[in-house]
Design a protein that fits this description.
The protein has 246 residues and is α/β, with parallel strands linked by helices. It contains 8 helices and 7 strands, in the order E-H-E-H-E-H-E-H-E-H-H-E-H-H-E. The chain has helices spanning 17-26, 39-52, 66-80, 103-130, 142-146, 155-175, 198-207, 216-228; strands spanning 7-11, 30-35, 56-60, 85-88, 134-139, 180-187, 236-239. A 7-stranded parallel sheet has the order 3-2-1-4-5-6-7, sandwiched between helices. The longest helix has 28 residues, at 103-130. It is globular, with a radius of gyration of 17 Å. The N and C termini lie far apart (35 Å).
């Protein structure tokens, strides 16, 4: 896909989404950004996009609610006139022991990570068909891509992210005749979570074959590469510094 003058919608992704939005803008893409709670971070990302010279829109939406998803997509298309790219980054990531899991704890990742990605795809497809095709990129996780859980306390998150890979494959098959390519990215150690101590950050570096955290730019490189391809669909790409082979 030629990215100049295309329109992308990024859902969530407060920490990585801002970098991705700016990098897409440098490729000539106008960017819609959605947020549920992190409005200030998304507004700052929109300012970056505009400073680069592209248009930006911030919309508030709860991706777990299908009616809000449909409104989000409608508002984005109304603002930019088209929609070519969907990047599903919205996610619920919380640790909770199995014995303490409630129905709400289980439903959070299922409704946002999985059902939310599906609802977003369903809402954008008619608009992509109108412009002759597009790209949908979902976000899984390196542990899910590896096919086995590695950390206790993340049952709903792991199951949802594993299912996102299945959704990616199924959508890729369903939408291929519409020239809509569907792929997934499975990040590993990209940005240290703020709650990690310095020794914990260093331990992740030690057990990652490349010996470092990737940084948000590592995600942008892969996403932009997938957007430029015309013959890769149904794939999940791990961006984890080789973590899965250790």
């Amino acid at each position: 896909m030629e990215l100049q003058n295309k329109v992308a919608l990024i859902t969530g992704g407060r920490r990585i989404g801002a970098t991705l939005a700016a990098d897409l803008a440098r490729q000539g893409v106008d960017v819609g950004l959605s947020c549920h709670r992190s409005a200030d971070a998304m507004e700052a990302a929109a300012v970056q996009v505009r400073e680069i010279g592209r248009r930006a829109l911030v919309s508030k939406a709860n991706i777990a609610e299908p009616t809000e998803v449909r409104q989000l997509v409608a508002d984005t298309v109304r603002a930019f006139g088209r929609l070519d790219i969907l990047i599903n980054m919205a996610s619920v990531y919380r640790q909770c022991s199995f014995d303490n899991l409630t129905t709400d704890e289980w439903n959070g990742p299922m409704r946002v990570d999985l059902a939310g990605a599906y609802e977003c795809a369903r809402a954008v497809v008619p608009h992509m068909r109108q412009v002759g095709g597009g790209h949908i990129i979902c976000f899984s996780d390196w542990t899910a891509a590896g096919g086995r859980p590695r950390y206790k306390g993340y049952v709903p998150y792991y199951v949802a992210k594993r299912a996102v890979m299945g959704l990616t494959e199924a959508l890729a098959l369903e939408l291929a005749t519409d020239n809509i390519l569907v792929n997934a990215v499975a990040p590993g150690p990209i940005i240290p979570p703020p709650e990690l101590t310095s020794p914990e950050v260093q331990e992740v570096e030690r057990i990652t074959p490349l010996g470092r955290w990737g940084g948000a730019g590592a995600i942008s490189e892969v996403v932009i590469g997938l957007l430029k391809t015309e013959f890769v669909t149904g794939e999940t790409i791990r961006v984890d510094g080789g973590r899965h082979i250790r």
